UniProtKB/TrEMBL annotation:
It comes from the Bacteria. InterPro entries: ABC_SsuA_sub-bd, NrtA/CpmA_ABC-bd_dom. Transmembrane segments: none annotated. This is Aliphatic sulfonate ABC transporter substrate-binding protein. Keywords: Cell inner membrane, Cell membrane, Membrane, Signal, Transport. Belongs to the bacterial solute-binding protein SsuA/TauA family. It comes from Streptomyces spinosisporus. Its main location: membrane. Residues 1-27 form the signal peptide.
Amino acid sequence: MPANRSRSKSLRRGITVIAALPLLALAACGYGSKADDTDTAKVAAGSKKIDGLDSVKIGYFGNLTHATALVGREQGLFQKELGATKADYAIFNAGPSEIEALNSGSIDIGWLGPSPAINGYTKSNGKSLKIIGGSASGGVKLVVNPKKIKSLKDVKGKKIATPQLGNTQDVAFLNWAAEQGWKVDAQSGKGDVTVVRTDNKITPDAYKAGSIDGAWVPEPTASKLVAEGAKTILDESTLWPDQKFVITNIIVRQAFLKEHPKAVEAVLKASVEANKWINANPGKAKAAANKQLGIDSGKELPANVLDPAWKSIRFTDDPLAATLNTEAAHAVKAGLLEKPDLKGIYDLTVLNKVLKAAGESPVDAAGLGTS
């Protein structure tokens, strides 16, 4: 949807304000919740510190789309690869707070969605972060009240929730609505369909109260709504080639990557091991992710939410770089982002080294890698 210059300026200002709002349900203090230090992972006798570091600070969300980090932690894989260098963890509610923590040095490496990664990279003129690996694809659905919406065309005129203005799901829904020929003002959310920006933690209550007719949301929020009587009417993966699109990447502070490549390699090795174990042992991996989620949030997901949510997420080391570029183009089309220069946002050198050692194929940066 084209937008004039003044509106684009207003939209960008709106994104800056909204970016401070929480995206997920976990409580946090400061940049993120400092995780409990009572991990079961033990340091092997005779282990040495990597790059002379006392610790590596790792950030992630308490979300199933960050299950690579959840499983890697619960299984002790990060600590195993880091040896006598301690794996420290911080749990975040939203991308903007994790980017802030990365920029301040409060974390070194993190699991993060595509939109905040793009915003963090562009706002720093390409100086703050690098995407160094993939983690997950999919796990986003349009779920609706079946009494009010029988088919996709019935979405017109209804109230649909997205997590926050300008976030990954918000951009995806605005783009999908535009492809239906519907007009929506991106900033206000008003138009042929009303977009209601609602924190994921209260979206199920908003649905039960009837203040929204559906939601375009990530897992496990989508499955929580289904458990309340909603129906999945569209899985976003069906809109993408090969049904793959990036939902979670691994990012690193650029200075940390330059100064401590061996530590970055250790974390990426653990991530690759975690994804391999997840894909080979889906049942055990699901239980491990939920166990860690319960430790982090104080409550595990019930089976009627966990099971369908887990099935819709694919775990991959490939960052699916071409889809990141497409997601950025959708944000530009909606008037939520000026055309960004993403050249250099990826540095997959260390990941491809790890993949080669594991006998796996290298992954591609789709022309957006470090030259």
